[in-house]
Amino acid sequence: MTTPETAERRTVSGGESRRTPSGAPPRRRRIRTEAVSGYLFVAPAVILFSVMGLYTIGYGFALSFAHWNGFTPTWKWVGLDNYADLLWRDPVYAPPVQAAALNTLWVMIFVPLLTVAVSFPLAVLLNQVRRLQGVLRSIYFVPYVTSGIAVYFAWRYILQPEGAINFLLGTLGLGSLQEPQGWLGNPDTALATLIVVIVWGNVPVAMLLYLTGLQSINPSVLEAAQLDGAGWWRTNVSVIWPLLMPLTGINVLLNLRESLHGFQTFLVMTNGGPAQHTNVLGLEAYRLAFLENLNPTLGLASALGWMLFVVAIVLALINLRVLRSRV
Amino acid sequence: MFDYLNEHSEVRAMRRHHFGTAKLAAVAVATALSLSALTACGGGGSGGSGSSGALEMWTFKQSHVAGLQAAAADFEKSAGVKVKIEAYTPDDAFATKIQSSAKTGDLPDVMETHSDGEDLGFGASGIAAELTSVVNDAWLARYPETVRTSGYVDAAKFKESQDDGSKMHGVKQGARHSVPFTIGTFGIVYANKKMLTDAGIARPPATWAEFVEALKATHAKDAKNGGLALGLKVPDTGITWLAQPLAYSMLGRSGYEALFGKDKAANWSSPNGVKVLQAYDQVTPYWMPGTQTLGIDEADQAFAQGKAAWLVGGTFTLAFLGQNGMKPDDVYAFGLPGDAAGKVPDPALGPLALTSLILSATSKQPENAKKWMEYLSQPEVAAKFSKASTDLPATELGAESSSIVGPALASLLDSFKGTPEGTYDPRRREFFPPGYKQDKAGAILVDMSPLKKVTPEQTGQKLTELTESFWATSQ
Questions:
Q1: B118 close contact with A: CB closer than 8 A
Q2: Closest residue of chain B to A85, computed from CA coordinates
Q3: Is B86 helix (H, G, I), strand (E, B) or coil?
Q4: Cβ within 8 Å of residue B286, ≥6 positions away
Q5: What residues are paired with B334 via a beta bridge?
Q6: Measured between beta carbons, which residues in chain A are less than 8 angstroms from residue B447?
Q7: Are A140 and A252 in contact (CB under 8 A)?
Q8: Which of A4, A129, A144, B321 could form a disulfide with A204 if both were Cys (CB 3.0 to 4.6 A apart)?
Q9: For residue B4, how far is the Cα from the chain centroid?
């Protein structure tokens, strides 16, 4: 039986009678039209990426070799001076960058570690809850959807000398644990407090990732473990945790990236204080770029940004290698 | 059968044609939308004024808005030009707002900025217009001589601008990029009268030692709310508003200026420098809890709310306290008391231009904007503004100034009175190393007081190292 489609195929692939006035066969013409429309469809994205992505990346990279304040008509080319000044050479700029690098390192160690340490058990417990799981999941997700400037301000009030944390400690008879200068006012507690606030904001997404992983584990695997005599703890440690290792890798990578580049929490809550004890590299780059009152430090900011980018790439590669070796 | 097939394939071909047309239309729309988005990103802003025809003016002082709006209403009546006033706070947000608006062509016509630094930086960057030909002698004569050169690139400022790292790099000698708008000074102490009375203090302290004793008394009366507030989250406040006037009083002009020099026998790590730091350290036990986490406005608010008995600020602080519900009659306001045993036991605090007006280089109505700037400098307009904002205008108000500005501001005017040698003049910066940044020095000082992380001796050493680093960079 000849269907309309086969007839059409025959007609299209058939002879000279179906050629277009220009001489091109209809199929080739259709392919060309589709190709053109395809190119046109991706053109906006390509143009946008060229302008917003490639151009700005190239511009920023070039800027890292210059002194400029963003407004003067000319750049002063300085070669690799900006990199050298930030890393060791300039006695004004290098010491704060080195101090900020150390603070950033602490943040990069503890934020991923604590986020995983909190979110994995939370996800396991939430996965075992049979009632109100949706409600509980929403509650635990609240920190993520509410994170922002307003929440950081709220945290500042909570952490003040007369704030809720000190009040709670006093009410519970733990007055000796109160922080008289406020939790952000004491250099010994300020960075640790900020890390806790960042972890509080990062746990929901990490927990959700673990939860999706937990729900995708084949129940027969868990049953087999139980039949082999593994208890709750053993199942989680020896079966579930290894199975979710790729998700742990993703969580660690996401938190490392956030710890390396993120600065809004620090900007809003301490502005790097007290006395620069909570300054981090992202905040230092932001200050050099926008808060130097038109001093020509945009190039320094750009150089610092590129150094952070290189570190992020290296970390991503290490993470990828570790994941591949484990999976 | 073939007819059917032909007909069917024609229909499909038509459909394909329609589909192709629709697809191309969709592509065209998507492309147009993305290009329009790019165009939007590319700026094309109005550059002030806008289509409404009204002038636009931005300020970073919320306390100035009411006074400026009142002046704008009068200006509209007299000149027929409407002026729209907007405030963006705090200072950092204002600075970034101007920079981003300059990039997108959305600057207002007139801006109130910090004097003698920010204004000339905007001039060097092409954001602020050049005003030499506009600001004539009659206009300048309205200002006290001490602030007439504010906004003007004299030989000293031009020399400072020659440094590659200077924000003023690129200004031309003899150019004027702003006119002064308000004057005042730092190092003004505010004290809560009621709290002082409760602690048995009947009058403001007259010397540094009395000040420390009074602090001790209010703190002993109420350890939680009887301390000293200062927005040390902005670390340069401690050194600029408190340590430097104290150093000037203790060491006199030459000794004070030597603190920032290269001579280790006279700079911060010297016995003189350590003596100043030890005196400053005397207030350490009496800071308001957590003052190092507060910005300037937050510290002012804390004082207005009764969370501190003392506050260090500037002449401009009085207006902010008023906005936060504290009446001028509720406070003592006086210049930082000097060291009775120092070289300048009773120092005056030199007035300087604190804020200035700049004209946007992209203003669509430069003539009207200049008229508005000139209008604000007229004595009767300045007097009205002063009353409405509780701030000191740059324009001289004549012999009646005390009665015009009210008793609280008049007492602040008294702190300006002194001999040249007996006056701490914060405008003088020529002895600082090129590119010197107060915030870095301030952070070192905060580490000593209130944080108690380092001793005065260690602080002196660190300040010397910092100063030397700026000297080294300048070479």
A1: yes
A2: B473
A3: strand
A4: B212, B215, B216, B218, B219, B226, B227, B228
A5: B189
A6: 275
A7: no
A8: A144
A9: 84
Test B8 with A4 for CB contact under 8 angstroms.
yes
Q: Does A188 touch chain B (CB under 8 A)?
A: no
**Phi, psi (rounded to 5 degrees) for A157:** -65, -40
What SS3 state is found at B207? strand
pLDDT of residue B125: 87
Average pLDDT of B239-266? 96
Give pLDDT tens digits for B262-275.
999 999 999 999 99
Over residues B168-189, the pLDDT tens digits come to 888 899 999 999 999 999 999 9
Query: Would you state the pLDDT for residue B437?
Result: 86
**Tokens in use for A234?**
């053993």
Q: How far apart are CA A273 and CA B446, in angstroms?
A: 10
A204, burial (CB in 10 Å: exposed 0-12, middle 13-18, buried 19+): buried
Question: Which residues, at least 6 apart from B325, have a Cβ–Cβ distance to it below 8 Å?
Answer: B304
Q: Is A313 on the interface with B (CB under 8 A)?
A: no
Question: Average pLDDT in the A55-80 region?
Answer: 90
Mean pLDDT of all residues belonging to chain A = 87
Contact A274 B232 (CB under 8 A): yes
Assess A18–B contact: CB distance below 8 Å, yes or no.
Answer: no
Residue A6 lies in a domain: no
Confidence of residue A147 (pLDDT cuts 50, 70, 90): low
Judged by a CB distance cut-off of 8 A, whether residue A161 touches chain B is yes
* Buried-state track B268-292, b at ≥16 Cβ within 10 A, e below 16: bbbebbbbbbebbbbbeebbbbbbb
Indicate which CATH number applies to the domain containing A317: 1.10.3720.10
Note which residues in 65-84 of chain B have CB less than 8 A from chain A. Answer: none
Cis peptide before A274 (omega within 30 of 0): yes
| CA distance readout (Å), B118 to A125, A249, B92, B111, B361 | 56, 47, 12, 11, 15
Domains contained in chain A, number: 1
Q: Is residue A28 part of a domain?
A: no
Instruction: Report d(CA A306, CA B43) in Å as an integer.
Output: 27
Q: Flag whether pLDDT at B45 surpasses 50.
A: no
Would you state the pLDDT for residue A293? 77
| C-alpha span between B356 and A316 (Å, rounded) | 50
The model's confidence at residue A182, banded by pLDDT at 50, 70 and 90, is very high
Q: For A27-36, what is each residue's pLDDT tens digit?
A: 888 888 899 9
**In this complex, do A185 and B290 lie within 8 Å of one another by their Cβ atoms?**
yes
- The SS3 of residue B314 is strand
Name the band, by pLDDT with cuts 50, 70 and 90, for residue B220: very high
Structural domains of chain B, ranges and CATH numbers in brackets: 55-184+351-397 (3.40.190.10), 186-349+420-474 (3.40.190.10)
A264, part of any domain? yes
Round the CA-based radius of gyration of chain B to a whole number and report it.
28
Which of B224, B292, B296, B466 best tests the A interface by mutation, with the highest count of A CBs <10 A? B292
Tell whether the model's pLDDT for residue B373 goes beyond 70: yes
Contact B233 A71 (CB under 8 A): no
User: Is A190 inside any structural domain?
Assistant: no
Where is pLDDT greater, at B55 or B398? B55
Q: Of B293, B358, B463, which to mutate for an interface test with A (greatest number of A Cβ within 10 Å)?
A: B293
DSSP state of B336: P
Across A32-46, B134-148, B301-315, the highest mean pLDDT is recorded for B301-315
φ, ψ for residue B322, nearest 5 deg = -60, -40
DSSP assignment, residue B340?
T
Q: Write out chain B residues lying below 8 Å of A11, CB-based.
A: 5, 9
Between CA B437 and CA B110 the distance in angstroms is: 28
B5: closest chain A residue by CA: A4
